[in-house]
Amino acid sequence: MSIFPADVANSNATPVTDPIIRQQVEDLLIDYVHAVDDFELDRWPNFFTEDGIYQIIPRESYDQNLPLGILFCDGRGMMVDRILALETANIFEPHTNSHITGRPKLSQNDDDTINARSNFNITRTMQDGRMEIYATGKYIDVITLAGDKPLFQDRRVVLESRRVDILLVYPL
Amino acid sequence: MVLADASELSEPFSWPGSGVTRVPFRLFSDPEIYALEQQRIFRGRVWNYLCLEIDIPNPGDFKTTFIGETPIVVIRDENGDINALVNRCAHKGALVCLQERGNKAKNGMTCVYHSWTYDLRGQLKGIAFRNGIKGKGGMPDDFDPAKHRMQRINVEIYCGLVFGSFADDMPSMEDYLGEKLSWMVKRNFDRPLKPLGVHSQIIHNNWKLYAENVRDSYHATLLHTFYVTFKVNRMDMDGGIVMGDDKWHHISYAKRHELDETDEYDKAGVHAAQYESKLSGPELLKAWDEFPDGITHCIQTVFPNLTFHYTLNSLCVRFFVPRGVDETELFWIYLGYEDDTEEQTRMRVVQGNLTGTAGLVSLEDGCINEFVQRGTHMSADKEAFLEMGGRDAESSGNSRATEAAIRGFWEGYCGIMGFR
Ligand code: FES
Ligand SMILES: [Fe+2]
Fold it and tell me: How far is the CA of B89 from the centre of ligand 1 (A)?
């Protein structure tokens, strides 16, 4: 798997016409954000294939195809470590995230994987009630339908801003 | 607010008699002291980090940045020389360069407000309607563009890093760092660099709390429990603190324990964290031996607001910019080298997970300094207690359980601020 974010883009993709595929993909996208918002974090690695890629990267770096963003997991193992770390090791002020996502644009690759691009807006609420827009951006996804449920093979979370308030600990 | 003298603070400030083992909390929240720092430190006799040489490789390339809160543009001219200018028009003071990066080789720099135009050294070349329109208006006859320019500041390029100073009589960077510290900058930066990615984070605290934090070797394994939790032995290592002669910069370093090399290293000289680690994704700590000195972790500070880290093989410039008395923007500028192999780049990228705003061993620093800010902002008359490792600010060869480097920061700070 490439560490370079833009290498994922596939130009030979064709539009998705099957409404069942769209339904499956939309269900995955929405299930994912509800799981992370609701702290069902143990489920998070399971939205990915065993060797799936997850990266959070600012738009500036994504557009320049620079490899190093804010967070990078190659494979479920690194995702499991992330969750275990935030649940047992990392120290931060309690807060919640709430995702609002837009309808995805889909296309299909030769190998039957699906490209999805959708926008998101995340509001963070601190324990004292302070609420802010924490992140805005887009998901650039490659989703496989090969197994019994759709999974992310590659999910790039591209943040509009390269500037993060305070810290980033929960997956977006 | 312009304060000519520390005695002009509306409430006078003097350092407690016990010296730098005590730090008055007032220093973190007093807006007058903050304003005085802009003048005495950032616009005073220090070298400020501006950018990397590779940020502006070609003639006309520019990058905007800040010295303290003062907006700066760094621009490469036709001769290949790097100029640093206050990003402020000589007419009415508007920002001249608006983007963060770009190229001005074609027409020089033009202020958008009234189209005053500058060359790549900041010299005024021409102004719109100099002779008025149809003989009416225009500048007085004695107007001389040669007498107007963007304010220039001193520049020194050191190991691919561009520094600037408002002072004209600065020692060279080499002397500013001193022999005990400059070697580490050369080791890490004095070869062609490759950008890997940049991000920043807003931390809600005075800039000096972060300056303390990066010198605070005492907190590392206490606050950042990742290594302990995951039983990563690698960080259980010998190390020490090296203070420069001026005390205000330092290096904290560590070396891996002597391990049985034949077991540890594979043919490529690359080894994963196989020992004892509870990591499900051990690739996180995959590293290779890059430098013969055996130093696998190093934090280096340069007064006032610059830090470098080299952790495993992850190389990063941390530049923290004051954005107000209680707000700081911390930039994480990750680098590799031009001649890195694909595998080496990959290791640097994966190791990037350890640091940054989401760093497994650094994310706590995003909030911990804010906790101090919030804890102290109503206690200007109280002070911090810094006696771990003694009361002096000397190098220590074997222990990092010390606050010596923080005391060193405050010694330098007191001196430049005139608080002694
Ligand atoms: S302020 Fe720049 S031209 Fe007037
Ligand atoms: Fe820290």
Answer: 6
State whether the beta carbon of B116 lies less than 6 angstroms from ligand 1.
Answer: yes
Q: Residue B310, Cα to own-chain centre: how many angstroms?
A: 14
Statement: residue B3 has pLDDT above 70: no
Q: How far apart are CA B405 and CA B211, in angstroms?
A: 10
pLDDT digits (tens, 9 = 90+) for B188-202: 999 999 999 999 999
| % pLDDT > 90, chain A | 91
C-alpha to C-alpha distance for B358 and B208, rounded to whole angstroms:
22
Residue B35 has pLDDT above 70, yes or no: yes
CB atoms closer than 10 angstroms to residue A53: 22
Q: State residue B235's pLDDT score.
A: 52
Residues from chain A that touch B368, judged by Cβ atoms under 8 A, are 91
Q: Is B4 exposed, middle or buried (0-12, 13-18, 19+ CB in 10 A)?
A: exposed
Q: Chain A: residue nearest B334 by CA?
A: A68
> Mean of the per-residue pLDDT values for chain B?
91
Average pLDDT over residues A126-155: 97
Q: Which domains does chain A have, with CATH numbers?
A: 8-159 (3.10.450.50)
User: B306 - beta bridge partners?
Assistant: B302, B319
* Measured distance CA(A120)–CA(A135) in Å, rounded: 8
**Is residue B262's pLDDT more than 50?**
no
**What pLDDT, on the 0 to 100 scale, is given for residue B276?**
55
pLDDT band for position B306 (50/70/90)?
very high
Non-local CB neighbours of B294 within 8 Å, separated by 6+ positions: B255, B256
Which residues in chain A are closer than 8 Å to B229, comparing Cβ atoms? 84-85, 88-89
Contacts of B223 in chain A (CB under 8 A): 91
Residues in chain A: 172
Say yes or no: CB of residue B111 within 6 Å of ligand 1.
yes
Residues in chain B: 420
**∠ Cα A102 A106 A107 (to 5°):** 165
For chain B, state the CA radius of gyration: 24
Query: What pLDDT does B254 receive?
Result: 87
The 3-class secondary structure across A21-82, one letter per residue, is HHHHHHHHHHHHHHHHHCCCHHHHHHHEEEEEEEEEEEHHHHHCCCCCCCEEEECHHHHHHH
At residue B225, φ and ψ (nearest 5 deg) are -95, 5
The CA-based angle A120-A124-A127, given to 5 degrees, is 160
Structure tokens belonging to residue B17:
């008699």
Cα gap B244→B180, rounded to integer Å = 6
CA A92-A161-B281 angle, 5° bins: 55
Mean per-residue pLDDT, B383-404: 87
